[in-house]
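re: ur question from yesterday

yeah so i grabbed the chain u mentioned. its 292 aa long if i counted rite. heres the sequnce exactly as i have it in my notes:
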Amino acid sequence: MRFMQEVTIRVPLHVSGFWVPYYGPTPTLTGSVGVGLTLKPYLTAKVTDDMVLLNNVKIQGGLRNSIARLTGVERFGVIAEAPAKLGEGFGLSAALAIAMAISAQLASQGKLSLKDALRHAHIAEVENLTGLGDVIAEALGGGLVVRVKPGPPGLGEAFSIKVRDRIGVSTVLIGRTTTPEMLRDFAGRISLYGREAIARFLKDPGLEVFAENARFFSRLTGMMRPEVEGRVSDILRQTLRSGCVINFFVKKSLLVVIHGSECLDEVTRKLSTLGRVRLLSIAGEGTSVHGA
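ran it thru and got these structure tokens back, copy pasting raw so excuse formatting
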């Protein structure tokens, strides 16, 4: 349909620093509480009535099947672009699920209830073990997102804290860990240290305290091994000492370094010894839909 081809969607990415999963009797009542950063470049998507493409790669099964079942629509699609791949720790599966749910709902009803689309995206994420709290965080956006009640928007609760300008987030993929593997291998420690990190953060919420507790969480859960922490501390020693690098942590197998823009070149150069560096920045807005 012509109107669908004019609809575009923009969804921020999301990297959780620490969290606690909650498993309810239904996917809607399942989710997580915690704190994460919403990031740009955004996933951008154009609504179509056919296949789902992400960075020119066709996406089938899994999330798409869940969205189709939840909405009762088989014929829907998006052409999406994002600065990362699925499974790397950026909450990209949630961003894509949001875009797909919006497309399917438009195909079904011809008008958009963003709340319903976000609920379908959350359920699809839970069913496919690809995420528990990314949908509500990416829906809200606004910098640091604090999730205080698990579930999709409208049932779960979250608030955002604005992050000051000129903050960069440099990332390096240092391995490969899927979300199901993470939830399985680190489950007990995630719950234990996630609660502690959240409690410490809420006493003095802000970017520096977030970064400090994200490092604490990733170390004690085992996501950041001692040799990785030692090497990163060593190569970033000067920028950590100067305060330009605020701190770093590991989510799944993604090394995340939060720093000021004034040391971007130095941080990028030093991190390049570990692998390919991706530079992102703080997303001040959440999910938006244009043309619906």
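noticed a couple things. The chain has a mean pLDDT of 94. also The chain has two domains: 2-161+285-290, 167-282.
anyway ttyl
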